[in-house]
Amino acid sequence: MNELELIRHFFARQPVSRADVAAGIGDDCALLRPPAGQSLAVTSDLLVSGVHFLPDADPVSLGHKALAVNLSDLAAMGAEPAWFLLNLVLPEADAPWLERFCRGMFDLARQYDVQLVGGDTSRGPLTIGIEAHGFVPEGAALRRSGARVGDRVYVTGTLGDAAVALLHRLGKERLSEADFAALVERLDWPVPRVREGMALRGIATGAIDISDGLLADLGHVLEMSRVGARIFLDKIPLSPICREHVGKSGWEAALAMGDDYELCFTVPTKNTGALEKLQFACGLHCIGEIEAEPSLRIVDESGKPYHPTFTGHDHFAGK
Q1: Are residues 115 and 192 located together in one domain of the fold?
Q2: Which residues sit opposite 27 in a β-bridge?
Q3: Residue 93 to residues 5, 65, 244, 261, Cα–Cα distance (Å)
Q4: What is the pLDDT of residues 187-218, one digit of tens each?
Q5: Nearest-CA neighbor of 265 among 174, 190, 314, 193?
Q6: Distant-in-sequence, close-in-space partners of 97: CB < 8 Å, separation ≥ 6
Q7: Which range marks the domain in which residue 94 is found?
Q8: Are the C-beta atoms of 15 and 112 separated by less than 8 Å?
Q9: What kind and span of H or E run contains 272?
Q10: What does the pLDDT look like over 103-152, one tens digit per residue?
């Protein structure tokens, strides 16, 4: 199978066809029509074999996750997904692998009505690069720079489940089959909080998705907003399995290991009533507050400072 046949067979046929795509796959460029009054939000992510996923990863879940992590970035900006580009480096044109990869990717694309409009393929070590585009009303995007002193800090969902599942997969944690099955969905099949992000427009002041760990990602918000924060350990939302892990091994899985793909955002007190009316199905938890003094402070139930041994993922740490 040559490159053109691969593109036609696996990617030109897809389940989403949007009216705002004048020309998609097949030309040198896609021709797209952003709606009037909307800003275009653009993000991209790379997944590299051996770095972001194990070489024997299930291609269905890999296709899902490759798109999901980009949709999560759009969610953090309050953007509605529209289009994406796929750049795929393959060791070989493995038709069964590609069929499964496309199934996972396009099943998620269908859920969020996001259309593949182009990209590129090449031969080499397995690498997946996706660039996703979405719309957000002008002036309504959620920004990392928007947090203000007095805002409350919230997260969606629970934290640490994906990290504990990864520790088990790497042989660094021992879970029962039932517990691993309960957590591995969070690692391999993350749910981008797109609808939640769009609902936060006009309510939240700042936001980010938690990909590199709560401490690192909230730290980006604090740096961009030029503020600090106090976080309460007893308010961090944990599943029962993750809580058991934290009791034995410490808080790093929930605070710093990442792969949660939940939203962390700040809300002024005047907007908390509007926030509570949203009733997110994934859950909503206030974990702290924004303060004027720079840096991030973590305290336990007694008010004693907690000092983590690890503060988040960095691809180039120690290089």
Answers
A1: no
A2: 25
A3: 10, 21, 43, 30
A4: 999 999 999 999 999 999 999 999 999 999 99
A5: 193
A6: 59
A7: 3-137
A8: no
A9: helix 272-276
A10: 999 999 999 999 999 999 999 999 999 999 999 999 999 999 999 999 99
Residue 306 burial (10 A CB sphere; 0-12, 13-18, 19+): middle
CATH at residue 181: 3.90.650.10
Specify whether 213 is located in the same domain as 281: yes
**Tally of domains within the chain:** 2
Residues 295 and 177 in one domain: yes
For residues 67 and 132, give the distance between their C-alpha atoms in angstroms, rounded to a whole number: 8
* pLDDT confidence of residue 181: 95
CA-CA distance, 68 to 47, in Å (whole number)? 12
Q: What is the largest CA-CA distance in the chain?
A: 64
Tokens encoding 36: 């009037």
Tokens (6 digits) for 277? 């009316």
319 confidence band (pLDDT: 50, 70, 90): very low
